[in-house]
Amino acid sequence: MSVSSSAPTRIGAPVLITSLVAAAMFMENLDGTIIATALPQMARSFNMHAADLSIGITSYLLTLAVFIPISGWIADRFGTRNVFTAALAVFTTASVMCGMAHGLVEFTATRILQGIGGAMMVPVGRLAVLRVTPKEGLMRAISIITWPALVAPIIGPPLGGIITTYFTWRWIFYLNVPLGIAGMAMAWRFLGPDNERQTRPFDGLGFALCGIAGTTVMYSAELLGSADTSWPLASAFLLAGVVTSAAALVHLRRTPHPVIDLSALRIRTFAVAMGGGSLFRMSIGAVPFLLPLMFQIGFGMNPFESGLLTLAMFAGNLAMKLVTTPLMRRFGFRSVLIVNGACSALTLALISLLTPATPYVWIVAALFLSGLARSVQFTALNTVSFADVPKPQMSGASTLSSTISQMSMGMGVAAGAVALRIAAWWHGHDAHALTPADFSVAFVLVAILGLVAVADVLTLSSNAGEHVSGHRRSEKPS
Q1: 221 and 355: one domain?
Q2: How confident is the model over 295-309, as pLDDT tens digits?
Q3: The total number of structural domains that make up the chain
Q4: Do 212 and 286 belong together in one domain?
Q5: Among candidates 164, 183, 175, 168, which has minimal Cα distance to 121?
Q6: Are residue 174 and residue 216 in the same domain, yes or no?
């Protein structure tokens, strides 16, 4: 039986817990992208080439992929409050150590430690929200805790550029300290203790298989997107990742106490959110990677101009938050996911029409529309994924969702890089000499990926998740 928090919930505590978890998720997502613009200054501090520092990004993302699968077991064993608070402490301490690093080895080690804290912080925090939130409040709670995944990749690069330009790259990590300390205090105060804890045995083999599979797949995706890597080598790593993933799936289905519980995939709404939803996350995960490159390499803009333009998508994300819940209540999850999914793919295709001669007002309008559509789709997918999951399965479902989401967002960056390689091949030139036409093709390919994701939503019933969205109840006469 799954753990349940039996401590009484304080008035207003669910809202505070949701806000706290959203802030923690924002820190975790931001740290995955913000250092990209700081790499040149960091390289000068470490007396090395900026390209060699890419391991600081990949080591963090790979650590998340490896350790997220055991977050559910740890939360069930030691309690959500204890684990979430400890994860904040590890993440905050590691942030200080990252800021104090004076070499690549030291920095990479502290990034791995930071990744371990992040791997525990995000899924366990979401589990805490799911446990204290009633079904009728689930849509609002999920809407709040999904905005970090939308906002952080967009504002990370320009924010990192501002901090690096006017201060020092070390403040990128030091800024986590006050947030982390405040988060620990709030978590200990408002998260109730778990009076019942699950003591299922630890699935060591499953953890090893999932860790190897996640690392291999993500590394192969990075190789596929690298212009200096041969297709055969990248394909070999991808094949190894697929084989290891298949072995992990067989093990997880057969063992009585798997490190990742796959039973939630029998629930149609959850399965669709993990299947087609992953393709959608890959398509939107490619956008923060492609946009700055298109503006700076393809259009010849400077980093500051590029960062300001990407904020238009962030504005669209925020603007749509006000109407997302009424939309799902009026039309239901299935209709919103189908129509808005198609609109989201269309807005990505619209970006492919932009050129260096396009007026700024039209660029801003295209990015704003794309931000509107992706915000609705992201929130709807994250909400419907847990709409029909029973409370006893929340821990396993949260762990599985976090693992797949992290993998798909990471694969999105690789998908964008692969799209650029295909575009360069299509135009018959080297992948290092990118042109505006290459980015146009890349955005069309990413849009097609997002459109394919809609096909899975067609299998949902018209009343899917109605007890969460309130769609049917809103149509009944009063």
Answers
A1: no
A2: 877 888 776 677 778
A3: 3
A4: no
A5: 183
A6: no
Mean confidence (pLDDT) of the chain: 78
Q: What is the pTM of this model?
A: 0.74
Residue 47: CB atoms within 10 A of its CB come to 9
- Do 125 and 62 fall within a single domain? yes
Residue 252's domain comprises 203-258
Residue given tokens 């969460």 in the structure block: 468
Q: How many CB atoms within 10 Å of residue 9?
A: 15
Residues 219 and 191 in one domain: no
The structure tokens listed for 360 are 């700024």
The torsion region of residue 45 among left (phi > 0), alpha (psi -120 to 50) and beta comes to alpha
CATH code, 387: 1.20.1250.20
Rg (CA), the chain: 22
Closest by alpha carbon to 272, among 465, 19, 471, 121?
Answer: 465
Q: Which amino acid is at 67?
A: F
pLDDT of residue 117: 87
Instruction: Concatenate the DSSP letters of all residues of 64-109 into one string.
Output: HHHHGGGHHHHHHHH-HHHHHHHHHHHHHHHHHHHHH--SHHHHHH
Enclosing H/E stretch for 399: helix 394-427
Grouping H, G, I as helix, E, B as strand and the rest as coil, residue 292 is helix
Question: For 138-295, where are the alpha helices, taking DSSP H only?
Answer: 138-166, 171-174, 176-190, 204-225, 231-254, 268-293
**pLDDT tens, position by position, 256-270:** 888 788 888 888 888
Q: What is the mean pLDDT of residues 74-79?
A: 79
pLDDT value for 472: 64
